[in-house]
Amino acid sequence: MNERMVSGLAALRSRSRAPRADELKGVPWLAVLEPAHARRVLDDLRVVEVQAGEVVCRVGRAPSFWLGVLDGLLKMSNDTALGIPITFTGIPPGGWFGEGTLLKREPYRYNILALRRSLVAGLTVGTFDWLLDHSFAFNRFVMLQLNERLGQFIGAREIDRLTQPDQRVARSLAALFHPTLYPGVGRLLRITQHELGYLVGLSRQRVNRSLTTLQAQGVIVVEYGGVRVLDLQRLRLYGAQGQTPS
DNA sequence: TCATTAAATTGTT
DNA sequence: AACAATTTAATGA
Predict the structure, then answer these.
(1) A224 CA, B9 C1': separation in Å?
(2) pLDDT per residue over A133-147, tens digit each?
(3) Where are the domains of chain A?
(4) CA distances from residue A29 to A44, A86, A94 in whole angstroms, order as listed
(5) Three-state DSSP state, A102
(6) Engineered SS bond to A115: which of A26, A73, A98, A237, CB 3.0-4.6 Å?
(7) Closest nucleotide to A192, Cα to C1'
(8) Protein CA A40 to sugar C1' B7 (Å)
(9) From residue A157, how far is each of A77, A162, A171, A178 by CA, in Å?
């Protein structure tokens, strides 16, 4: 409803800038590269600030960037033309996405929009391919990421079937705290209860109740504008068989 | 640095 | 959807 004429990808071409040194610390795979490879990346990497509600990439567009979240929060959905949104996934800081479509040279299969003002980084497809051809470390990173994401999507389908709000909130939160996919999150996830409700598909009020419940059980701590995880394992397994909600 | 104000977020109905 | 309470961010002295 609040879409711009300029998509985020076009914005990455037009109003992007080079990343600052402190922003590069939010690029987890940069540290694994050899100096020569990293230099080429630094030459290519661009960042752009997107506003809340702005579309970063849209289904059907030809992929031209590998994209990462340096700050903020994005929402990925694969809602089809039939109007049935199947899977929602939040992408917090440290998350990189789009490698699947880049590898297959297919159009994007997802809509990505910013839930809040965010800083998005982009690596051009040419440099992405070049890294795959030249860096074992980069290949390992991408392979690991694809594997982890596969597990997360399977988990997302289970979340869709869960009926208990507390379970849905717990699992969705746990997915956002994924240390490999989203290393930028750490133990404190910056997300409002409104945003979480939008991701999980619940009202803000219901999310608030679930968060209160989870906090009472010592799994998380609810903070202003964020959630701190105390026990990621229990958050992941919340409501599963054999789990005693103490 | 501190006080004031506006805006955002939370907790509740 | 609406309300009050709380927290943060911004502003200026």
Answers:
(1) 7
(2) 999 999 999 999 999
(3) 8-153, 164-236
(4) 15, 30, 10
(5) helix
(6) A73
(7) B9
(8) 42
(9) 13, 9, 11, 17
Protein residues closer than 7 Å by CB to strand B: A 116, 192-194, 204-205, 208, 211-212, 222, 224-226
CATH of A8-153, one of 3.40.50.150, 3.30.420.40, 2.40.50.140, 2.60.120.10: 2.60.120.10
A164-236: CATH topology is Arc Repressor Mutant, subunit A (1.10.10)
Closest residue, CA to C1' of C6: A224
**CA–CA distance, A112 with A55 (Å, rounded to integer):** 6
- Our measurement of CA A224 to C1' B7, in angstroms, reads 14
pLDDT digits (tens, 9 = 90+) for A26-76: 899 999 999 999 999 999 999 999 988 888 988 888 888 999 999 999 999
- DSSP one-letter string for A5-52: SS-HHHHHHHS-BPPPHHHHTT-TTGGGS-HHHHHHHHHH-EEEEE-T
